[in-house]
Amino acid sequence: MKIDGIHTFSTIKAYQDFINFEGIIYNGFSIARLEETAKVIPESMPPYRKRFFKIMLILSGEIDMHNNQNTAQLQNNTLFFSGEGHIQSWESIAPMTGYVLYFTSDFYSIVHKKNKLHSDFPFFTQNASMSIKISPEESNHLQRTCENIISLSNQDLSNKEDIFRSYLNILLLESKNLYKEKIGTNSIIEDSDKRILNNYNLLIEQQYGTDKEEVLKSVKEFANSLSLHPTHLNYVIKSLTGNTALQLIHNRKLQEAKSLLLQTSKTVSEIAYDLHFDNPTHFVRFVKKKTGKTPLQLRNT
After folding, report:
1. By CB distance 3.0 to 4.6 Å, which of 45, 204, 247, 291 could disulfide with 243?
2. What is the pTM of this model?
3. Considering only 44-48, 97-101, 140-144, which range has the smallest mean pLDDT?
4. Which residues pair with 80 in a beta bridge?
């Protein structure tokens, strides 16, 4: 289906049907070799939003990938990450080898807490670097894990999905170590304030990619949904991030605006109303204040 003109896939099955790939899905989890998917999927993909997570291990080949406002040519020995709700598109696929994994937050959360995906794995956040280059040795190590998963998928085991979750968690933890080594991450804080921040970020994310006519806009509305006083919410957010609660709302809105400007042909007015601005003029002022550029200048840079 389309929401605000963007293809939106609520399930892995719906996405695989769209790209013409018949992958095996295990209750919210799927893995395939890239050389198999490359035989059938389109050479270019229009912008889409998905309600699941994606990891690609590219051993060889290349693809021009757009993820949110970021664009990169992904080549051999690359790990690619895309979180729930990210806007993606691609083009110019050269024959690739490697692996692609899809999984839902529900699949992961049967054993682990759902919000751990966002708090523990920084590459799934909206503003994260979408990929990292790794060494051939690191690629080979991850390749063995992926092959183990594929081998298990062909076996008749009663606890197959539990084993998949264990392997998935290993891949996520090892990817986190590689990501931290290549890029760096903030330390993870495990306390009640951190849970408030996680829930706040998740609630902000839920305002996008939806066909709801009314969304939460103000800090007060978000605080009420979290059963918190706005002052306390702002204090927690400020102490953990250095930004106010309102700044996080604005940062996410700006990121969404950049994604739509760079990946779609929507007009400035269409994007303004998609993002629930009262009128396009307010949207232009918002973007100009945050970036020093108009929406059209951002699109053309």
Report:
1. 247
2. 0.79
3. 44-48
4. 56, 131
